Amino acid sequence: MPELPGFPRRAALRTLAGAALALPALAGPLGQYATAASPLWHPDPVKDGLKAFEGVEADRGGLHPDRKYVVVEGNHYRYNIWRDDRDTTGGGDRQRTETKGMVQNGAVLKMHDGETWTLSYEMYIPASLHGTSRFTHIFQTKTPATNAGPWVTLDLVRDGGVEMISARAYANPGSPSIAAAKLAPLRDKWITIEWTLTPGDAGAAACVIRSGAGAGAPIAAQGRRTGVKLPDQGDYVRPKWGIYRSVESDPADILDTYLLFRNYRADRE
C-alpha cells in the first residue's frame, strides 16, 4: 500500500514504539475501566482485526479495487481516503471510509433508548485532513434499520481561516455544538475522545476532547447537552468511525489523507 502524505512509515514505527511504553490509567467518566472488569468492547487490532466491527463502508461502487481503505498497522487501525473517491450516495458529492458498529467475540453490541453508554478511543489527525466548509464527519451515530441520522457527530469544520473539531448534536435544529476546540494544536499526535451517550428522542450526549493520549491528558474541550435527538427507533443506535465528507468544499481541503484510531473502549453503565 502506498504511503499517504504526512505520515511516513518510519514515523509510524516511531509513534508505535513510543506508544507501547505505557498505557495511562483511565480516569474521569471512563474511570471504571481502571478497576472494573474489561469493558464490553475492547478490540485488539492484531487479534480481532476488522472483525471488531459490523462492517466497512468504503469504495462501495468498486471503483478502486486495488486500494486498501481500512487496515491494521501494529496497535492501531488506519483509515485511508483519496480525493477522487466517491460514495454511491449523494449523486457523487461525497466520499467515505468508515467502519460501523461494535463487535466483541462475535456479538454485536447495541445501544438502546434509555441506556447510558461510555465510548472512548485515541485518534491521530494528520495535517492533510482538513476542516471543511461542508460536512466532514469523523464519528457519527445512526439507526441501521431506518438508515436515519446522523444523530451525534464529531466533525472537522472550517469557519473562515479557523479549523475546528466539534462534537455536535447534529440532528437537533442548527446542529449545536456539544464541545469544540481549535484543530491545529490537536494535529499530528495522538489525542483522546470520550463520549457519554444516552439514546432517546430527547436523549443526552457529553464529550471530552483531550489533547494527548489517555484519560489523564489535558482537556482541550468538554461539554454536555440534554434534549439530544439520538433515537433507536425500535432498533438500535450504531456508532461509525472514519472519514465521511462532502467533496463540495474548497478543493484545497479535499486531499489524499488518512485517520488513525486505537484503544477503542465501550461500556454500558
TrEMBL record:
Keywords: Signal. Residues 1-27 form the signal peptide. InterPro entries: TAT_signal (IPR006311). PROSITE patterns: TAT. It comes from the Bacteria. This is Polysaccharide lyase-like protein. It comes from Amycolatopsis echigonensis. The lineage of its organism: Bacteria, Bacillati, Actinomycetota, Actinomycetes, Pseudonocardiales.
